[in-house]
Amino acid sequence: MSRIGRPLPHRSATLPTAQTSQPRPPARASTLPASLGSSAVTTPPTARPAASAPATTESRPVKHPGLPEGAPTYSPWEKSSGAASNLMVSGGDNKLTLPPGAKQNMLVDRPGNPFQKDVFGGRVNGNLGSMQASTASHNSGGLYHYSAQAELNGPHAAYELQKVHAGRLGVTSGQLTAEANAFKAQAQAGVSADTKGHAYTAALTAKAETGVGVAASASHDFNRHVGAYIKGEGKASATAYAEGVASLDPRTATAMLSGQVGAAATAGAYGTAGGHLGRLHGSVTAGAVAGVAAQAGGKLGLENGFFKHSADVNAAAGVGTHLKTDVAVDLRHHIKPSIAAGLRPSFASASGVASSSGVVQPEKSRVEEFFARAFGG
Q1: What span, in angstroms and rounded, lies between the C-alpha atoms of 95 and 82?
Q2: Could you give the residue ranges of the DSSP H alpha helices within the chain?
Q3: Are 201 and 36 in contact (CB under 8 A)?
Q4: CA–CA distance from 204 to each of 93, 155, 186, 188, 260 (Å)?
């Protein structure tokens, strides 16, 4: 949970776009002095959060049975979706954190109704929604905290389908994942006062988002030395947020009011193709993103002895592209064919697919049979 007045970390990339295709949203307004951040905001106690949407399984090339289980594998699809921060707003997460020992009063705690069902050869996981609302109070050691917070997750569902086929030409696998989140919203209003440090803060934050995504991938391993794969993915999301903060710290001559609002809608798609030949791995990813975003913020008051007034408005719209290449060389020694043959029964668990070991055991090639006879495999 970010502290009020501190810069937020860079937003994780979810959609592909070029880094220079659109202007970036304005930086977050600095609303509190450094001394206030450490005195008025502390670590929250452990609390059970409301049920959230299940994350779909990340599709990736199936691990060949000739590789030992648990060994590091090459993953070309990590961070392959580019950076969509040029068309996305960042805010709504700057909330007051509860002091240790704060008294919580749970008003509503409905974790939702999760469900799971096998349909169309795959599996659907979802939840009909969840809701949580509570108040918190703390009055000890000169630190006073009063806040109310709520989180609402709408219906969401995720579908996953995985298939594996083993034959004379190798192992073929495919995976399809899809996820839809109706909406997710969170809000908090609270005040925090440190009478010993003479730091006082009042904050109101709210954020709502929704999104859908689908991904499909296929891979084929002729053997543990030669293979190829492709993947396609599409995502769409919308986000809106609002923040307001009032801060007072007489020691640093600060009395500031600040606010910020933003909204964005983006959609993107990208594809990856690659393969491996011996120790050499490589992939190429290309994609595009389109969307609109707007963000506005301002502050008024006394900050560190200076009277300040500022306003910042930014909007972006357009289409961006993304291109990525990746090459890696495996410097580890390949295991002997006899050992590889003994690892075939564990292929199902090693590849992360729901298939029995008897189905996914590929037939040995003539070269493998020769080495098996030569080395007693």
Answers
A1: 28
A2: 34-40, 337-343, 347-351, 357-360, 366-375
A3: yes
A4: 10, 26, 11, 6, 11
- 357 vs 339: CA distance, rounded Å: 17
Q: How large is the average pLDDT for residues 237-260? A: 92
Each residue of 192-235: pLDDT tens digit? 998 888 889 999 999 999 999 999 999 998 887 888 999 999 98
Q: State both tokens at 71.
A: 């060994």
Cα→Cα distances 323→58, 112, 273, 320, Å: 20, 40, 12, 10
User: Confidence class of residue 62 from pLDDT cuts 50, 70 and 90?
Assistant: low
Question: In Å, what is the CA distance from 79 to each residue of 14, 75, 270, 287, 324?
Answer: 9, 10, 12, 13, 10
Q: Which amino acid is at 370?
A: F
- With a cut of 70, say whether residue 254 has pLDDT above it: yes
Q: Which residues pair with 348 in a beta bridge?
A: none
DSSP code string of 165-222 = EEETTEEEEEEEEEEEEEEEEEEEEEEEEETTTTEEEEEEEEEEEEEEEEEEEEEEES
Alpha-carbon torsion, ordered 360, 366, 368, 374, to 10 deg: 140
**Alpha-carbon gap, residue 296 to 204, rounded angstroms:** 16
* The amino acid at 23: P
Instruction: Identify the residue with better confidence: 191 or 278.
Output: 191
Q: Which two tokens stand for residue 372?
A: 């098996």
* Pair 319, 289: CB distance under 8 Å: yes
Tokens for 258, please give them.
Answer: 């600040």
When the pLDDT of each residue in the chain is averaged and rounded to a whole number, the result is 75
